[in-house]
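=== RUN LOG ===
request id: a7f3
mode: sequence -> structure
chains: 1
length: 175
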Amino acid sequence: MPEKNNSYNNYLIIVLIMGNLILDQLSKYLVRIYLVPHDIVEVFGRNLVFMRVENTGAFLSAGEGLNDTFKFITLTVLPFAALCAVIVFMLKYRSLPLLLVIGLSFVAGGGLGNLFDRFQFGSVTDFIHLDFLFIKTGIFNLADVSILVGVICLALNIYYKKISTIDRTGKRLAK
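=== RESULT ===
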């Protein structure tokens, strides 16, 4: 995988983060206006439904029962600090692989979307549920999709980095 060159600039990072954040917040805004909590709206039969829930925990409500102080630290303060560190890292180092930048930007945009909900409303608005044969999800939102896409990009970055350091005979190339 080619390394990111200096022609990429901070605008790409900002556009990706803000694009993910804006799409997430716009979708949640519309859900809060048009969906009554816990009502089910079938979008594609029972396979794709929208159902508004407010999640005070993390992914799939993990940590929902924690005491308020510990929950605030683990679900708000620590993720905010980590996202700030990721953003500073990306803005500081100009020779990062493109997939790494895309992945981290998607994770940051999605993470900021969910953190914004926590600060603004005390919970995260989730509304998408999938049930296709072997794929059955909990209820999630577009920020979660952004984070998943980002993690896939990060995994692909690692994969391409590994195969680019191995020749066709399986021998590791010198760096």
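=== NOTES ===
Residues 10-164 form one domain.
Residues 1-7 have pLDDT under 50 and may be disordered.
=== END ===
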